[in-house]
């Protein structure tokens, strides 16, 4: 048998109740169409071979997102050609076994991850930038017109110099404005 299930009490950290711990053959595991194998493991790093990565790029994106959401994971690198994922992590108070179990759970859970298309975020970002440009242009125009009017009013008065305000107004009104 490749995998056996056992009830866990304190073996699984940050998992939903009731917790199930997996006693796993470290060489090969199959679970719901996801086959993976631990290729190499040292303290702070694990490399897992997942043949599905070569044929399913969407799964690779979901897996990356799922693994990066684990608090102890510091870096995730997926090599599609080699069909493997390298995971760097911090081993604080969590044992190596618990870390493995959480990584395996993330591999299994990656199928259920829903990623929003990045085009939505790019469109929203463009809208925000265009609104910011509009406010910037409007502010320049307001400052320019106000400075120019106050400067023209103050020029005939000998005590208060109006020329700096006129120059500021000309600068604001003639400087390059951003396209909206």
Q: Any overview of this molecule?
A:
With 180 residues, the protein is α+β, with helices and mostly antiparallel strands. The chain has 2 domains: 3-112, Alpha-Beta Plaits (2-Layer Sandwich), CATH 3.30.70; 118-174. It has 4 helices and 7 strands. The chain has a 5-stranded antiparallel beta sheet with strand order 3-4-5-7-6, covered by helices on one side. Helix 3 runs antiparallel to helix 4 (163-174). The chain is elongated, with a radius of gyration of 30 Å. The N and C termini lie far apart (64 Å).
Topology (SSEs and partners):
Elements: E1 3-7, E2 20-24, E3 29-31, E4 34-42, E5 45-49, H1 57-68, E6 73-79, E7 84-89, H2 96-109, H3 118-154, H4 163-174
Antiparallel strand pairs: 1-2, 3-4, 4-5, 5-7, 6-7
Helix pairs in contact: 3-4
CATH-derived topology of the largest domain: Alpha-Beta Plaits
How far is it from the N-terminal to the C-terminal residue, by CA? 64 Å
Q: What would you report as the Rg, rounded to the nearest angstrom?
A: 30 Å
Order of helices and strands: EEEEEHEEHHH
Shape: elongated
Oligomer: single chain
Q: How does the helix and strand content classify structurally?
A: alpha+beta
Query: What is the number of strand segments?
Result: 7
State the gist of this model:
42% of the residues lie in helices and 22% in strands. The chain is α+β, with helices and mostly antiparallel strands and 180 residues long.
């Amino acid at each position: 048998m490749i995998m056996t299930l056992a009830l866990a009490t304190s073996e699984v950290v940050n998992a939903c109740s009731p917790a199930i711990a997996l006693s796993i053959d470290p060489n090969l595991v199959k679970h719901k169409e996801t086959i993976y194998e631990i290729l190499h493991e040292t303290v702070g790093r694990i490399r897992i071979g997942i043949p599905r990565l070569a044929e399913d790029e969407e799964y690779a994106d979901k897996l990356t997102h799922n693994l990066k959401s684990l608090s102890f994971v510091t870096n995730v690198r997926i090599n599609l050609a080699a069909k493997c994922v390298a995971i760097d992590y911090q081993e604080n108070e969590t044992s190596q076994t618990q870390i493995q179990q959480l990584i395996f759970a993330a591999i299994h859970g990656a199928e259920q991850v829903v990623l929003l298309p990045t085009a939505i975020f790019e469109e929203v970002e463009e809208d925000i930038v265009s609104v910011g440009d509009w406010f910037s242009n409007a502010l320049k125009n307001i400052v320019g017109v106000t400075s120019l009017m106050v400067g023209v009013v103050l020029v005939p008065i000998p005590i208060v110099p109006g020329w700096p305000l006129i120059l500021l107004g000309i600068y604001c009104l003639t400087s390059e404005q951003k396209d909206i």
